[in-house]
Write a structure and sequence with these properties.
The chain has about 450 residues and is α/β, with parallel strands linked by helices. The chain has a 7-stranded mixed beta sheet, sandwiched between helices. Strands 10-11-13-12 form a 4-stranded antiparallel beta sheet. The protein has a two-stranded antiparallel ribbon with strand order 8-9.
Length: about 450
């Protein structure tokens, strides 16, 4: 899109140097096509910054699980390594070594049986990619077993709760697997052992158990599901492995509930994924996929790549990606250690429970969860509140800058409409008190707006 007034390059340079952006009345910004001319970098950056001011404040975004606060040293490390492509392992061998260290640290944290420094895993762009890699390994292992037994390999299925994150439905659609979604119920908001068992048959490639549901923050009973599947196999039924989607809980449970057996301590758990950019405290995006041992990851999924002078094995859905988030993850491991992670996760969950108790004390609301596991809780309006909805509450809080999502539960429970709050590192008790004050103000405002409507409705009916 051309500028409205033709000026010489010298005139334009003079204008920009005197008053960049705001002193040029005829500067028209191209939005959907490449501009013809150039702009100085400072002017282009200012234009972008001005538009980004319309975004919400990331620190007040209580919808996202993704890290929004980081230490200055971590931020500096990320800036220093933004130009490193982690796939160039021959050129950046130390970045590759740091990735290997992170995989082994997580393998020990999640009690993998191998303890020789050769843990089986990979970094990814996030938990969605890691989950799909876990699903692919389940499918290929199932197919190999069926082929070896001379059985058909069509119509594979994957058992999971209807509360799974959408990445699992994507996996099933993209890789031709039938999703067997176990419906939620009024008193059961996630997958449990017997409903999972009822869906398994000889074509089941695996069961997905969620350690930290996105709907209410709860843990699914991985141990109970494993015991039920052990019994199924012992009785002559199919031998069905478990993949644990620990996108959030994988960085919380080892520190706050170390006695909870959900990981590789359970022999039936074949693979685990987690998000480093959630409660691993790394900015987006990095995820981790780990397997129990080499037998759990089919070799036909691993590629040996000769690239840029070096040869390496790779298992991923993409190729080039930044090494900076992996470096930032290793920084956190060194910076916090086990004690630091335990302290940060505990404080974060304590703040979440403080806010949950404050919400529960407000007359219109009823808690569905209270950050029992990860620092996340959900709540709804009590049955007697009919003058406004959770969506009205969410919209009113947004006027104060808070981003609190409102949504309905999965099929069979679509009539349950809730608000959810995710507390992350960087969200203090002081901010929690401010949120509660604004929530009280929002309720008062909505009730005040509802009162005149009620009078009008009463007059109309009379």
């Amino acid at each position: 899109m051309p500028l409205r007034r033709r000026v010489s390059p010298e005139e334009r340079a003079a204008e920009l140097s005197v008053n960049p952006v705001y002193g040029i009345g005829d500067l028209e910004i191209c939005r959907y096509e490449l501009p013809h001319g150039e702009l100085p970098p400072g002017v282009a950056a200012q234009i972008v910054r001005d538009e980004l001011m319309l975004d919400g404040n990331a620190r007040l975004n209580l919808a996202t699980f993704v890290t929004t606060w980081m230490e200055p040293d971590q931020r500096a490390l990320i800036a220093d390594t933004l130009d490193k492509n982690i796939v160039d392992r021959d050129e950046y061998p130390q970045t590759a070594e740091i990735e290997r260290r992170c995989i082994n640290i997580l393998a020990r944290l999640w009690n993998a049986p191998e303890d020789d420094g050769n843990a089986v895993g990979t970094s990814t762009t996030g938990s969605s990619e890691a989950a799909m890699l876990g699903g692919l390994a389940l499918k290929h292992r199932w197919r190999a077993r069926r082929e070896a037994a001379g059985l058909p390999t069509d119509r594979p299925n994957l058992v999971m709760g209807a509360n799974v994150q959408v990445c699992w439905e994507k996996f099933c659609r993209y890789f031709d697997v039938e999703p067997r979604l176990v419906p939620v119920e009024p008193r059961r908001h996630h997958l449990t052992a017997q409903p999972a068992l009822a869906q398994c048959d000889e074509r089941t490639i695996g069961v997905v158990a969620i350690l930290g549901s996105t709907f209410d923050g709860s843990y699914e009973p991985v141990g109970d599901i494993a015991t039920a599947l052990d019994g199924l196999a012992a009785s002559g039924g199919p031998d069905v492995p478990i993949h644990v989607d620990a996108a959030s809980g994988g960085f919380v449970a080892p520190f706050l509930e170390p006695g909870l057996e959900w990981d590789f301590r359970l022999p039936r758990v074949a693979s685990i994924n987690a998000s480093g950019h959630k409660y691993g405290h790394v900015p987006p995006g990095v995820g981790w996929a780990l397997w129990r041992d080499e037998d759990s990851l089919p070799r036909d999924l691993v590629f040996s790549v000769d690239y840029l002078g070096g040869s390496d094995s790779t298992f991923s859905l993409n190729f080039s990606r930044p090494g900076a988030p992996v470096v930032a993850q290793y920084f956190n491991f060194l910076r916090l250690g086990h004690e630091g992670y335990e302290r940060v996760q505990r404080v974060t969950r304590d703040v979440a429970r403080f806010v949950a108790d404050g919400v529960d004390a407000l007359a219109p609301f009823e808690l569905l969860s209270r950050a029992e596991h990860i620092p996340v809780f959900a709540f709804k309006l009590r049955d007697g509140v009919t003058n406004y909805t959770v969506y009205d509450v969410s919209r009113t809080l947004r006027e104060h800058g808070w981003l609190v999502p409102a949504y309905h539960f999965p099929p069979e429970l679509e009539d349950l409409h809730v608000l959810r709050i995710v507390v992350r590192n960087g969200f203090s008790r002081d901010l929690g008190e401010l949120l509660l004050r604004h929530l009280r103000d929002a309720v008062a405002e909505l009730e005040q707006q509802a009162a005149p409507r009620a009078k009008v409705d009463a007059s109309f009916h009379h």
